[in-house]
Amino acid sequence: MSSATDSPAAAPVKAQTRYMEALNRGLADAMEEDERVVLIGIDVGAGGGIFTVTRGLHERFGPDRVIDTPISEMGYVGAAVGAAMTGLRPIVEIMFLDFIGVCLDPILNQASKLGYMTNGALKVPIVFRTQTGAGRSAGAQHSQSLEAMLAHVPGLKVVMPATVTDAHDLMLDAVRDPGPVVFIENRRLYAMRGELGVDPLPLGRARIAAPGDDVTVVTWGQSLRECLGAAEAASVSLEVIDLRSIVPLDMETVLRSAERTGRVLVVHEAVQDFGAGAEIAARVGHDLFDLLRTPVRRLGTPSVPMPFNPALERALLPGAHSIADAAAALVAEG
Amino acid sequence: MLLELYERMALIRAFETRVAELYRDGEIPGFVHTSLGQEAVAAGVCAALRDDDYLATTHRGHGHVLAKGADLDGMMAELFAKATGLCGGKGGSMHVADPAKGILGANAIVGASMPLATGAGLSSKRLGQDRVAVAFFGEGAVNQGTFHEALNLCAIWDLPVIFACENNIYAEFSDSRTMTRVPRVADRAVAYGVEASTIDGNDVEAVHAVTFDAAERCRAGDGPFLLEFETYRWHGHYEGDAQPYKPQDESATWRDADPLVVAGRRLTEAGDATSEQLEELRERAGARVESAVEAARAAPDPELEEAYAHVFGD
Predict the structure, then answer these.
(1) Cβ(B211)–Cβ(B48) under 8 Å?
(2) Mean model confidence pLDDT for chain A
């Protein structure tokens, strides 16, 4: 933690980019690149966004392109879909992923299906920007990781940047995509610093975030940091894969690693039951049944609403220690 | 002009009358919702629009889509789920669209047309065009949050959007007057600072005139507007609905207000057409529909690979 009396030695650290700044730059680059890109959402304008991610864009691109809305998600998210169908490329913000409950129709029934139902005659190039992240006592209605629910809807791409590079690059990829993309940020990553332009990859490709030999750890979003922490701390060697997007799902990278290690641990912050981890486990089990040394293991949050109490919340979320323990247990099994 | 409007109504009447039979005979799959009795709204509104104006409509959208200029053969083939349909057989009656004619689609979610039209209005304004967007919806949809949210958004953003409410009295199986204390939909617009009027929806000339005026004012930047058209749904919520919830003599009363009869009487009384000419016109519409049916019957199903195409905006 830095303080106001930090010496100039802090300067090189400051030269690095924060995740939120990378997002801001990604939004600005997308708007610079294409006049049709507009930003729509609650407080995204002069307010700069509740987490300051859109700060400065209103001044730079004007109120016609950075459009403040009433607290009216069903209306403005639906309008953004209509705008995408008619020539704009909207990036529409849903302030908290949890709020998707009040505006699921434009995502679930409209954006995801209109291109398909019209046999490609209509295009819906839209980005639904939102954020999630438990671990700060935000309570059960502000902490949910719902990527599996969205990934379950055919027609939606679901992107979850876990690094500074991806915060920027995946945003540009999402805006350039011809179809609807749900772009899920993690607010616990907003202050994280890192380098832009490190190991750039296109949307749909997973990244080996840490090479290793004993266990393939598949993860995404905020859990990547915990898994990297586990890789440092664990008694066994972890190969950590950052999926970067849930849809498309880069199983090739996962399977290539799992063939070598023979053990797979899927880690995610979302509740474990019926989650994306189950999908990955099923696919690995199907494709590599004979090569696996142990059954695929999942480590997610138990299926309970997120409690407010910080100690309870901490205990439920997968952390570096529980991940390291789970990996060691897999190696002990076989 | 009235003769042209009559012709549009006659085509919709012939199309849906035939579709109802084909559905009953099992030739058309899925669900079908007809707008028989409501043709004046579709014809009057759409004739007041340009080809490049936008239209978002409902599950009861055949009339609107046809009146806006969608290809008749493509429409019929789509209802038959054939490869030659407007949506390649992947949309169907409730999802038929024709973006080349500004038709953003029928929509199976009650109230969904309004935010989509709001977005189309936003595009038009932002891109410096003067295209108007029309959202068709029934009076049942005004109890959805989308109505209120979209109306408010259009109002604060001054968008060129016309909210075209077809008040046909029935929200699915329910008399919609029992679902609200505010019988006139137009009254609700007042709360959002939106100019609104209630019009006889079976008088195609009145529908056309009020829509033309609203569209022109939208192009001048005076939008949005809400237009409530009072009409009546002859058939059930869907084809096959026996309508046990309707009072016995109600349908007969409304058949006297058949928009084709009203317009036809006006044309013959003014000497603009003879009843023989109108009869001939209706027969011509029937023949066009029959030829579309024959073409749809003969058309192939989509290939299996089409089921996998256009999932992600490709």
Answers:
(1) yes
(2) 95
